[in-house]
């Protein structure tokens, strides 16, 4: 069997599993079998970007990492990846900041990844590259003479041509990605947006739903939604609901309903809009005053990107305003935590929450939506309020779907969720649960790897296209 080589910006090293560890490592658990290699940045910044990888083995898995030079890191990560690509691909043109030197830094880190990875590859390895930090990597690997099958999965949304073309050098960037054999997206909408961009910017021809022709090269573009380990998370939640943290939370609520939000502190997650909708709930529906508490866990992320610091200040202010206006000496409507909690603790809190708020302005998928569903007690489940603009909405249509930009709609959905009777809660949850237990992380891996392993009838070697 071919060896799987995973490439991502960060590698979750075995000894280094922090509170936040999980994410990709959890999603890839089924793919990372003994014998696999995981390559990426070590998380360490050095004077200069390393040319060769440090190798570590644990449980049969090889971890190969490189340190990044400080200047490269800033231009690549805080610069182009999170200053330009992240806002662009989340449809936030007003937040996008393009700087040519940051783009060059991004390209050079992608080149450094390719140069350090190429010598570690065997001829039959299947390479699976992850996410927006590494869009140029397929072409950079081809430029190193790598002819292996290369798959790429984009965890975040993709934009249609009218938005994508605003990014200077968009065509060059897309050509770099198109050097892969398979590109995967969270939803059909993202896959189709990519295909439209390939047609508009690269003169690709769409041969069928998921095949693009770029000259002689055939590129498969597939929609494969990511999922969670639903069984594992359900069990974790049931156990955690009996632990001390969940008991302390229950006691502190004194019979009040819990509404929960758990997000990275990020401008795609719709947090200011969520706080505004909750404040309006208390204003419009005084019946909920003293009866409901919103617990928002928003672990700080990407703190060296300026936008994130401004968002944090804005949320501090909004949380203070709401509590200042509505709190009483024995009740605070909004509990707001910017430190991460352990995954286990979160699972237990999800189970206790009558309402789960997942209201991003735009999101590739959003795993919190699926975790909230999996954590519920089927006999007395809570209600998911979900943004239409999360990829998860394509699968989880029995949630209360909202436009997060519409404060009134969001407010009324929270109200409806709090008032919903047990029959409707059970019926909606039953349908949602089925979806979450079907489209799991394991199925996501299997489906992507099946597409990656399936060679076209005639294998067309794709050598480097200069980008
Ligand atoms: C990207 C895409 C796509 C959150 N706070 C804490 C914590 N979390 C965990 C959640 C969940 C994960 O982090 C977040 O996943 P999301 O999917 O919600 O969002 P992104 O981080 O933006 O991920 C997204 C995803 O990739 C996968 O493809 O769904 O659309 O943007 O698992 O539970 N975990 C812990 N403490 C926290 O405070 N332990």
What topology does this entry show?
Layout: E1 4-10, H1 23-27, E2 37-46, E3 54-58, E4 61-69, H2 70-89, H3 100-117, E5 126-130, H4 137-143, E6 150-153, H5 161-164, H6 170-178, E7 182-185, H7 188-202, E8 205-208, E9 211-214, E10 217-223, H8 230-240, H9 244-253, E11 257-265, H10 271-284, E12 292-300, H11 306-326, E13 334-337, H12 343-352, E14 355-358, H13 367-375, E15 383-387, E16 400-402, H14 407-419, H15 422-438, H16 441-453
Parallel strand pairs: 1-2, 1-5, 2-4, 5-6, 6-7, 7-10, 11-12, 11-14, 12-13, 14-15, 15-16
Antiparallel strand pairs: 3-4, 8-9, 9-10
Helix pairs in contact: 2-3, 3-4, 4-6, 6-7, 8-12, 8-13, 9-12, 10-11, 10-14, 12-13, 13-15
GDP-alpha-D-glucose binds at residues 19-20, 22-23, 155-156, 226, 262, 264, 297, 299, 340-343, 346, 363-368, 371.
What does this structure look like?
By secondary structure, this protein is α/β, with parallel strands linked by helices. The protein has two domains: 4-227 and 443-453, Glycogen Phosphorylase B (Rossmann fold), CATH 3.40.50; 230-438, Rossmann fold, CATH 3.40.50.2000. The protein is 42% helix and 20% strand. The chain is built from 16 helices and 16 strands. It has helices at 23-27, 70-89, 100-117, 137-143, 161-164, 170-178, 188-202, 230-240, 244-253, 271-284, 306-326, 343-352, 367-375, 407-419, 422-438, 441-453, and strands spanning 4-10, 37-46, 54-58, 61-69, 126-130, 150-153, 182-185, 205-208, 211-214, 217-223, 257-265, 292-300, 334-337, 355-358, 383-387, 400-402. β11, α10 and β12 (292-300) form a beta-alpha-beta unit. The chain binds GDP-alpha-D-glucose. GDP-alpha-D-glucose binds at residues 19-20, 22-23, 155-156, 226, 262, 264, 297, 299, 340-343, 346, 363-368, 371.
């Amino acid at each position: 069997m071919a060896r799987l080589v995973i490439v991502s910006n960060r590698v979750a090293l075995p000894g280094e599993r922090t509170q936040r560890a999980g994410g990709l490592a959890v999603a890839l658990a089924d793919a990372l079998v003994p014998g696999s290699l995981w390559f990426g940045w070590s998380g360490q910044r050095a004077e200069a970007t390393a040319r060769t990888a440090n190798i570590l083995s644990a449980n049969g898995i090889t971890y190969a990492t490189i340190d990044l030079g400080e200047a490269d890191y800033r231009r690549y990560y805080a610069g182009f990846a999170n200053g330009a690509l992240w806002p662009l691909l989340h449809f936030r043109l007003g937040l996008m900041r393009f700087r040519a030197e940051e783009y060059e830094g991004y390209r050079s880190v992608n080149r450094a990844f390719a140069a350090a990875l190429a010598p570690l590859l065997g001829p039959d390895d299947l390479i699976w590259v992850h996410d927006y930090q590494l869009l140029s990597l397929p072409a950079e690997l081809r430029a190193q003479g790598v002819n292996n099958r290369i798959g790429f999965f984009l965890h975040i949304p993709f934009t249609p041509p009218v938005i994508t073309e605003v990014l200077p050098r968009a065509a060059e960037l897309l050509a770099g990605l198109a050097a892969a054999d398979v590109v995967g997206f969270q939803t059909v909408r993202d896959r189709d947006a990519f295909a439209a961009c390939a047609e508009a910017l690269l003169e690709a021809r769409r041969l069928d739903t998921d095949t693009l022709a770029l000259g002689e090269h055939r590129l498969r573009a597939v929609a494969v939604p990511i999922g969670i380990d639903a069984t594992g998370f359900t069990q974790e939640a049931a156990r955690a609901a009996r632990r001390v943290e969940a008991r302390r939370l229950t006691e502190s609520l004194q019979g009040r309903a819990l509404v929960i939000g758990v997000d990275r502190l990020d401008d795609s997650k719709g947090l200011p809009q969520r706080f505004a909708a909750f404040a309006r709930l208390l204003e419009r529906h005084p019946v909920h005053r003293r009866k409901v508490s919103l617990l928002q866990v928003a672990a700080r992320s990407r703190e060296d990107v300026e936008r994130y610091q401004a968002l944090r200040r804005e949320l501090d202010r909004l949380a203070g305003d709401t509590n200042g206006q509505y709190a009483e000496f024995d009740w605070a409507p909004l509990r707001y935590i910017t430190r991460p909690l352990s995954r286990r603790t979160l699972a237990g809190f999800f189970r206790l929450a009558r309402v789960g708020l997942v209201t991003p302005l735009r999101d590739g998928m959003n795993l919190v939506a699926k975790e909230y569903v999996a954590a519920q007690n089927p006999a007395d489940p809570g209600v998911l309020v979900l943004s239409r603009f999360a990829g998860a909405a394509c699968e989880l249509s029995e949630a209360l779907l909202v436009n997060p930009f519409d404060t009134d709609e969001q407010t009324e959905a929270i109200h409806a969720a709090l008032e919903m009777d047990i029959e409707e809660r059970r019926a909606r949850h039953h349908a949602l649960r089925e979806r979450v237990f079907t489209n799991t992380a394991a199925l996501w891996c299997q489906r992507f790897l099946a597409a990656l392993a399936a060679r076209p009838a005639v294998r067309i070697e794709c050598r480097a296209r200069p980008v």
